[in-house]
Design brief:
The model has no long low-confidence stretch (mean pLDDT about 95). Helix content is about 30%, strand content about 25%. The protein has a six-stranded parallel sheet, with helices on both faces. A five-stranded parallel sheet has the order 1-4-5-6-7, with helices on both faces. A two-stranded antiparallel sheet has the order 2-3. α1 crosses α9 and α5 crosses α6. It is globular and about 60 Å long. The chain has nine helices and 15 strands. Bound molecules: ribose-5-phosphate. The site of ribose-5-phosphate has 12 residues, from β12 and α7.
Length: about 280
């Protein structure tokens, strides 16, 4: 039997994907041992699986690896969909003595997967660390759809790294685009500058990840201070760690993310984009 097999944190996206693909959903048994260790058991009749699992937060990495090992033990081939590739931002040793964390994750997953699909990984370096066929699905068209509904007139990238996506989304909805320059001070703080005309416009700010909210809060404040009529924020991966909600919500009119990470802000699914990639793999 071929089925979509969800990790415990990716049930919603996996369910949507199973609908999209017309495949059954096979939910493994997940338990915790008294000491916190993870127990996984898959359907032993599986022959082939589309596994859907994040590598964030930390426990999900070991859960995903146990899941892949369990599938391999019953002889089931796995195509692994990683909706949110945790550790993707440590895609190189920035300072002497650091690990290349993304490579560690990629190598472990590659060992037990026939192929991999990543949804909007942070960088193309991340993709290069997988040693099996790896394709990228992008959920930014989902952001474009929501921006269109919200009447966004100016699509703003909070840094140069997302300028290309901002331009693509703007083109898709007939809006203009711009980007700000960003310098990270530390894990929570950034400084931002740039000459953008926000006056009287509905501004849609996009990003791949909202983690601490520092980036988006700075960008939203610039838009507000510059006279934006409304500020709409959309991202693919909404982690919202620490005080991100408190930081961002007072500055925005609308905040949404995809179901790669489920939160109260999830308002569109990455499933159609993942399906399109799986169909051509
Ligand atoms: C960084 O380049 C990413 O694209 C995001 O802008 C960043 O990860 C967001 O992190 P935070 O919400 O902590 O500012």
């Amino acid at each position: 039997m071929r089925a979509v097999v969800p990790a415990s944190g990716s049930r919603e996206l996996a369910t949507r994907l199973s609908d999209e693909l017309g495949l059954p959903l096979s939910v493994p048994e997940y338990r915790r041992f008294p000491d916190g260790e993870i127990y996984v058991r898959v359907d032993s009749t599986l022959e082939s699986a589309v596994v859907v699992g994040n590598t964030w937060p930390n426990d999900s990495i070991i859960e995903l690896l146990l899941l892949l090992d369990a599938l391999s033990n019953v002889g089931a081939e796995a195509v692994t969909v990683i909706p949110y590739l945790g550790y993707g931002r440590q895609d190189r040793a920035f300072l002497p003595g650091e690990p290349v964390s993304a490579r560690v994750v990629a190598e472990a997953v590659s060992r037990m997967s026939r192929a991999v699909v990543l949804v909007d990984p942070h960088s193309y370096l991340d993709v290069s660390y997988f040693s099996v066929k790896t394709m990228v699905a992008t959920a930014f068209p989902g952001i474009a759809g929501r921006f269109r509904e919200e009447g966004v007139e100016l699509v703003l990238a909070p840094d140069k790294g997302r300028a290309r996506e901002a331009a693509q989304v703007a083109r898709a909805i007939g809006a203009e685009s711009a980007y700000l320059e960003k310098r990270r001070i530390d894990a929570e703080r950034v400084e931002m500058w740039g000459d953008v005309d926000f006056q009287g416009k509905v501004v849609g700010i996009l990003d791949d990840i909202i983690s601490t909210g520092g980036t988006i809060a700075r960008a939203a404040k610039k838009a507000r201070d510059g006279g934006a009529e409304r500020v709409v924020v959309g991202c693919v991966h909404g982690l919202f760690v620490g005080g991100a909600r408190e930081k961002v919500l007072p500055l925005v009119d609308v905040l949404f993310s995809s179901d790669t990470v489920m939160t109260e802000f999830t308002s569109f699914s990455a499933a159609p984009y993942v399906r399109s990639v799986l169909e051509v793999m």
